[in-house]
Amino acid sequence: MKKTVDPFFTLVFCAALLGLPGVTHAVVKTIELPPDGAVWQPSTLPGYAKVMQNCVACHSAEYAQSQPPTASRAYYDAMVHRMKAVFNAPIDDADMPAIVDYLVKTYGAEKPAGASSK
Ligand code: HEC
């Protein structure tokens, strides 16, 4: 009786012997992204979601973290307006109070004692 060997089996068998990756098993690729600055501190305050929508396109939370911890509500209000007026940040005026509220309570003067902004 004539012995037939499936050519595909031969290929896989040889590849396995040679240890060729990709033929015998799927190659799993992982991509390591470089660390992307500072993340905005998650919060249940409504302004957090608005910061996610309005601020992350241009920069990380690094700028907010580097503001003085004593920065007042008025300070953040001026800062958010500046983002819009000077850098054309697409921030809806109606969203500004919530954003300022989140910023001052997370990074500024109204931060709860002992809370970390990092
Ligand atoms: C269109 C791009 C853009 C958007 C959107 C944007 N920023 Fe900025 N932001 C900048 C740039 C550019 C600077 C650097 C300003 C400088 O060097 O003077 C900056 C600086 C800052 C600073 C540092 C303090 C200062 O006044 O320079 C803070 C804090 C800040 N941004 C917060 C925010 C927050 C909060 C939002 C969302 C409400 C936001 N940014 C949205 C471009 C943007």
Mean pLDDT: 83
For this structure, what is the CATH homologous superfamily of the domain at 46-106? Cytochrome c-like domain
**Global geometry:** elongated
Bound molecules: heme C
First-to-last CA distance = 75 Å
Poorly predicted regions: none
Helical proportion?
40-55%
Strand content: under 5%
- In CATH, the architecture of the domain at 46-106 is Orthogonal Bundle
- Major sheet size, sense and barrel closure: none
**Fold-level CATH name of the domain at 46-106:** Cytochrome Bc1 Complex, Chain D, domain 2
**Which structural category do the helix and sheet elements fall into?**
mainly alpha
The radius of gyration is: 27 Å
The ordered string of helix (H) and strand (E) elements is HHHHH
Identify the CATH class of the domain at 46-106.
Mainly Alpha
Topology:
Layout: H1 7-18, H2 46-54, H3 62-65, H4 73-87, H5 96-106
Helix pairs in contact: 2-5, 4-5
Heme C is lined by residues 51, 54-55, 57-59, 63-64, 67, 79-80, 82-83, 87-89, 91, 99, 103.
List keywords for this structure.
43% helix, Cytochrome Bc1 Complex, Chain D, domain 2, mainly alpha, 0% strand, binds heme C, 118 residues
Characterize the structure shown.
- The protein has 118 residues and is mainly alpha-helical.
- It has a domain of 61 residues: Cytochrome Bc1 Complex, Chain D, domain 2 (Orthogonal Bundle), CATH 1.10.760.
- The protein contains five helices and no strands.
- Helix 4 packs across helix 5.
- The chain starts with 6 loop residues before the first helix and ends in a 12-residue tail after the last helix.
- The structure holds heme C (HEC).
- The site of heme C has 19 residues, from helix 2, helix 3, helix 4 and helix 5.
